[in-house]
Amino acid sequence: MVKVSEATLGALDRASGKLASAALASMDEQFAWFGRMPADQRASVLLIAQTGAAGFTSYLRDKREAIRLTTDAFRQAPRDLSRWISLRQTVELVRVAVHVIEREVPDLAADDDERQVLTEAVLRYGREVAFTSAMSYASAAETRGAWDARLEASVVDAIVRGDAEESLLSRAAALGWDLDAPATVLVGNSPSDDPPTVLYEVRSRAARANRPVLLGVQGSRLVVVLAGPTDPPVDVLARMAASFGEGPVVAGPTVDNIADAHRSSADALSGLRAVVAWPSAPRPVRSTNLLPERALAGDPEAEWQLIDQIAKPLENAGGALLETVDTFLEAGGVLETCARLLFVHPNTVRYRLRKAAELTGHNATSPRDALVLRIALAVGRLSRSRGLW
């Protein structure tokens, strides 16, 4: 087998700088985007080219060193180089560099036999560099993915804790989140003890719904922040609830943007603690539909919402409306009994109950709404007795 002489290897060593410069000039000539790169990034490409060209001589001496040498060439480049150059562009640059080396190196051979050996070696070495570049990008992507997962978990934790808005917004923006998009927080049991499995399940459903999400697994609890509106007819909340484990799933109110997501999170978590009191609650259930249970569990925000949305409007509407609702509830929802107790016609009771429903959004003839009204009125009276209203 023909070996390359030491004289030729020495000539290759001395020509490595020239080869790298020629490769860079060829890249500049062929690719317009390469000329628009910042100077420091172009210098990084030159560094890789020089290291690769110098490594070719070592490769000729010991082919077992090929992978290590070519890997080292990429390790010496700055970490952010992959943000400027895509994998496809890197392969194009490698192709140009190999072409330049293939064109220049044979002229350094002492004879035709060496020229043949060098030509074949260039092709093999170019293949090693191409494989190494692909591995480098794969490693960078894996590292970025792990970093993004940690950053995402920190954003979700910050939302749950109600951390400072500015730090939250900067981290969410780094993940590509639209800071002006509406946000809804869903909480429930995690479907698996394996975080990658949970991530795949949630992201798959979010992708099918064409919605961005942020998620965090906190022990056995899964917290999902969903972007976009949640109004019907598209029941995106039901789709996302299917990615949770067994048990109730509670959705907080949809807020204007991620800066207010802590309010959605606080209400959702309050609802998750209280939903056990409503065994037949739908899945998912809105935290606003759990106001009675949350109030009984001691949530002051739920108490205030019941007062503000139900007790106050009924009282401000006049005594007849509040008295009719009270009497109807005390009469067990029997219309005729309520009418007798109030000394009015049953149609009058129907009219007043309809007006109360328009005012509060709750119809006293519905068992669930009757419970909401009863708790709201009770909370209102307790609050008034303590001088809080």
UniProtKB/TrEMBL annotation:
<feature type="domain" description="PucR C-terminal helix-turn-helix">
    <location>
        <begin position="321"/>
        <end position="378"/>
    </location>
</feature>
<protein>
    <submittedName>
        <fullName>PucR family transcriptional regulator</fullName>
    </submittedName>
</protein>
<feature type="domain" description="CdaR GGDEF-like">
    <location>
        <begin position="162"/>
        <end position="274"/>
    </location>
</feature>
<dbReference type="InterPro" id="IPR025736">
    <property type="entry name" value="PucR_C-HTH_dom"/>
</dbReference>
<dbReference type="Pfam" id="PF13556">
    <property type="entry name" value="HTH_30"/>
</dbReference>
<dbReference type="Pfam" id="PF17853">
    <property type="entry name" value="GGDEF_2"/>
</dbReference>
<dbReference type="InterPro" id="IPR042070">
    <property type="entry name" value="PucR_C-HTH_sf"/>
</dbReference>
<comment type="similarity">
    <text>Belongs to the CdaR family.</text>
</comment>
<dbReference type="InterPro" id="IPR051448">
    <property type="entry name" value="CdaR-like_regulators"/>
</dbReference>
<dbReference type="InterPro" id="IPR041522">
    <property type="entry name" value="CdaR_GGDEF"/>
</dbReference>
